[in-house]
Amino acid sequence: MFNWRTCAAGVSAAALLATGVVSTPAAAAADPATYYVDSVAGRDTANGTSEATAWRTLAKANAADLTPGSKLLLRRGSAWSEQLVVSRSGEEDNPITVDAYGSGARPVIKAGPAYSCVLLSGDYIELLNVQVGVKGAARCLWSGVTVEGDHNFLKGNYFTGNSAAVYIDEQARYTSVNANDFVDNNVMSVNTDAEEMGEEYADDDAGAFAILVHGDDSEISWNDIRGSIAQSYDYVWDGAAVEIFKGSRTWVHHNTSVDNDTFTELGTDREPTGETRDPDGVSDNVFEYNEIYGTRTRGGLVTRGPFKETPDHAPDVNGPVLRTIFRNNSINLPNEDAEGVVCDSNCTNEHLTMTQNAVYAAKKSAYGPGITGTANSYNVLEGEQYQLGDDGVGNVFEDPKFDPARPLQLLPGSKAIGLGRQAYGEIALNGVAIGSNGGIEAGAYEYMPAR
């Protein structure tokens, strides 16, 4: 490819030599700064550039001159009731990093007057090893972390007590949420009583999200997500581990979801007339190698087609969601109301493909009367009801035989062992190479006999 930067530099150098004007070399750029913040022993009058001269407040840290490669280090054992804002940007190979230092518990960022405890509005920022939110009155007002910039990375953090622990804004692209712990993010942000306020409030409750995705091209992987469930006037219970609303091309893989009301629900945004409020729609989200279980969980995946299943075929204001792929996931839901995979609102093969999953859901293993043939293949499915368009290809309708001592790993004799036909990754949820036992399993785990 033609490199205009190299060409321009060469032309400029030649011109300087021809005129006899040659500049002296520029001074080497200073190394990116590292700043320290300590809520106990820090002083905002200090320079912040060492542990001994740490700042005290996040307000001071927010004003730091962060450049690509800069680090903002928060002392372990510290806690702040302020918002952390990182508005400056790093670079692809030189991000700005927010991390912990010292020993002890993670630094805690909790309630303040802001809508979000942490705001990442710049690009190429890493947020590592921090606790965001606490339970109770000191919790974050709405979200733990709001991501507005592109190419931001969250890892090793602990989130609790939020309405939305991580909110990926509509303008954000290429966010990675990797290997974090989400515990009891169970606060409703909207919870209205239609009996008191009127029927227009009968379908508006929302909240208790671990991860709420409005932006595109996110990766959500290797997280442990528990307890995103809260009481709701409209739905009795509500909440989700991963809620995707307007987000496309999200890759959700190798996550553990326990006792969240639903693992994932997807939707777009339309007027009741069918006119879109989401011009690029929602499409091409992939879920693979996730495990979903717990006695409180009522849903695995919920997605939708374009029109309600009513006589008037009114538009579903949250549909259609196109080309969702759900493969190699394990679901064990004994709750009497539990439904494993649901694709309603006249869903068809255009909207969902499910393959190589191992599913037990007490009420309904799968629902989607318009899903047929190869869009439903090589799954093990068990539940009181099964309501897809046909029996699919290569499916087995019996108990997947999960090991109670190793949740969602397989017992000997499970029909999920060797049922799969294609490896969609390199390693299964237990870290074992896919196909290493000679076959490909349905579900999230490579079969390994218990020891």
Output the keywords.
mainly beta, signal, Pectin_lyase_fold/virulence, Parallel beta helix pectate lyase-like protein, 40 strands
Quick synopsis:
The protein is mainly beta and 451 residues long.
Number of strands: 40
* Alpha-carbon distance between the two ends: 55 Å
Reported CATH architecture: 3 Solenoid
Low-pLDDT segments, ≥5 res:
1-24
Assembly level? single chain
Provide the gyration radius in Å: 25 Å
Strand order of the largest sheet: 1-2-5-8-11-14-19-24-28-32-35-38
- Characterize the main sheet: 12 strands, parallel
Q: What is the residue-averaged pLDDT? A: 91
Percent of residues in helices comes to under 10%
Percentage of residues in DSSP E strands: 25-35%
Helix count equals 3
CATH class wording? Mainly Beta
As for the CATH topology, it is Pectate Lyase C-like
- The class by helix and strand makeup works out as mainly beta
Q: Tell the overall outline.
A: globular
The number of distinct structural domains comes to: 1
3D structure, described in words:
- The protein is mostly beta strands.
- It has one domain (32-388): Pectate Lyase C-like (3 Solenoid), CATH 2.160.20.
- Helices cover 6% and strands 33% of the residues.
- The chain is built from three helices and 40 strands.
- The strands form six sheets. It has a twelve-stranded parallel beta sheet, with no helix packed on it.
- The model is unreliable at 1-24 (pLDDT under 50).
